[in-house]
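Step 1: inspect the first sequence and its tokens.
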Amino acid sequence: MKKSAFLMSVVFAASLGLAAPAFAAIEEAGDIETGNDLAEACTALVNHDVSAEGDLAAKACKGFLGDMVRNVVKATEPGAPTKFSRVGPKQDTTLCFEIPSKLSFDDFAKQVVAYHKAHPELDGRPAYETGAWSLSTNFPCAKDVKAP
């Protein structure tokens, strides 16, 4: 009888572990490495997940997106479009986008989550690619701007 009760408690504990949110390991922006990591963290932000894990994941999403935008702004001349080169599995793609003057974390996170849902091939790719593809889709360069 004791063996049966022990086995049931082990099975129960294991099932709780499987039911834990996938973003439980995402605590800060540095934990976000892949497109899937970014989408999971941003899903917590979009869904306003107030659990301890969800709050950490949402903060990680904000940190990653904020860092990405800050780096883009630093690397781009004022008023110029941003071009990301060497993107994709063969590193032969260039993306071009123009970040709007106002882009909230929530809006950017929603765009990342929506883009990720439509493009699961980015799951294992670097997280910045998912962010860049989201931006290039939602804020493409003007038609007269030529990407290299």
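Step 2: inspect the second sequence and its tokens, then contrast the two.
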Amino acid sequence: MRGAVNVKSIIVLVIILLVGVLGVLGINTVRTYMSSAATDTEPKSVLARPLADGRSAVISWTSEKASSGVVEYGTTPASLLLRAVETESVASHSVTLTPLKPGANYYFRIRVGEEVFDNNGIPYSFKTLAAEATVAPTPMSVPTVGSSSSGGNCDVGDIYNGKVIANSLDVILCLKGQSGTSVTPVPTSATGCRVGDTFNGKKIANSMDVIECLKARR
């Protein structure tokens, strides 16, 4: 009787040991699998490239295995509340963040599944470029291209002093009967056709107005 009890106890003990060993092996296997999966999708060569408009930036990275990531970003390390999501699984990643504030500091991290990746516990960061200044072009009329090549007119395309009239300065020279190509665009002769004078009830504002005035006084 005692021998039978001992055999049962040994069997129970062996079963408990086997269950424990299998449990440990199973946990380690899961840990190894999870660790391997995280390594396969871990972002590498992370790069932030602010664009020239000052209002956007491109975040790029690579991973060993194709995956879909999310860039979580914001203007402080503690408030990464904005999100930019990849739409497909790839190994070479590129995500555009927009709209951003020009000349501002931004912080971000990359989330792949349940894993969050950053710069050793600190969010990655970049600074947007200052916005490019835009200057509206000043509208101006273009002189009509003349058809004469004999020198009888002073329009662009005509010949004056053996040279083709190429721009408004050449037109002014032709109208004033001068030669040369390097002159100030504001006439200095007392013809009443200087910038600031009045012609036909309007103030002469630029070289095109000077040309019209000179033509009228020929």
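Step 3: confirm your contrast with the notes below.
The chain is about 25% helix and 25% strand. The chain has a mean pLDDT of 75.
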